[in-house]
Amino acid sequence: MATVSEWIEGARPRTLPNAIAPVVAGVGAAIALDAFSWWRSLLALLVALSLIIGVNFANDYSDGIRGTDEHRVGPLRLVGSGAANPKAVLRAALTSLGLAGVLGLALVALSGHWWLLAMGALCILGAWFYTGGKKPYGYYGLGEIAVFVFFGLAGVLGTVYVQAGRVSWDALGCAVAVGSFSMAVLVANNLRDIPTDIESGKHTLATRMGDGGTRKLYLTLVTVPYALTVLMGIWHPLLFITFVTAPLLLKPIMAVGGGGKGRELIPALRDTGMAMLAWAVLSAVALAL
After folding, report:
1. Where in the cell is it found (predicted)?
2. pLDDT of 56-99, one tens digit each?
3. Using CA atoms, how far apart are residues 194 and 274, in angstroms rounded to an integer?
4. pTM of the model
5. Residue 194 and residue 228: Cα distance in Å, rounded?
6. Which residue, 82, 187, 236, 278, has most beta carbons within 10 Å?
7. Measured between alpha carbons, how far is 235 from 189 in angstroms, rounded to an integer?
């Protein structure tokens, strides 16, 4: 049996900023529309957290039973390492995704925007089929697009919509920025795993673009939020405060741009995620003010 600490590590807490950042940014955009609701924001956050934990356990299970994680460089995988029974990890994944579904249903019912059920169902299906099923889309280079849609566009715009009943250009800008950050986190992850993914037959976007192209993509993605900051700052000058988060990206940019490999890239995921969360928090404060 896996220990409590191993289960916590298996849930991959370092990925939680990918769930928290879009909700925080969405809250800021909702406040700017004078439509903030603390309980709807809380429910949106709980949905996002349950969803990403479910994704992580589902990936652990699906990759583990395929043997993809046998020579993994990154954090502990419960199934791949043999620390936990695959069925137990599957139950954890389904429980987390089920909780996301129940919380999402409650949010939709209380907000009255029933069409959002379709988006919620799509998010849950996307979480499972990322590495699950006979033809997981994560094995065909589509993972980054899914992350951009689910933890960028859907996360931010959904948070705004359940509160305001509409979205704004500010919300869209934040959604694209957070989505770009989330993509950068996954790109750094897949850059690290190129050798083992090729060996196991996992065709991620990184294996298709190659080492050099993947590094260029990462560097491009982390510049997008700050380019959007300049554009949005024309109408909201306080948004320029988000540039104080740029130094958080110095180490990951040096690691990725400097040719770091394997374990040298692990901190890049954490630091990119923290830069995303810090950017989202400061953007929310700026929009709220």
Report:
1. Cell membrane; Membrane
2. 999 989 888 887 766 666 677 888 888 789 999 999 999 999 99
3. 23
4. 0.93
5. 30
6. 187
7. 35
Does residue 131 sit in helix, strand or coil?
coil
Alpha-carbon dihedral of residues 57, 12, 20, 103, nearest 10 degrees? 30
Closest CA to 4 of 76, 101, 103, 94: 76
Supply the DSSP symbol for 136.
-
Q: In angstroms, rounded to a whole number, what is the distance separating the alpha carbons of residues 111 and 34?
A: 16
State phi, psi for 83 to the nearest 5 degrees: -70, -30
A 10 A CB-CB count for 259 gives 11
Name residue 140's beta-bridge partners: 203
The H or E element that residue 129 is part of is helix 116-129
Strand-pair partners of 203: 140
Residues 6+ apart with CB under 8 A from 30: 36, 37, 41, 159, 160, 163, 164, 171
Cβ–Cβ under 8 Å, residues 26 and 20? no
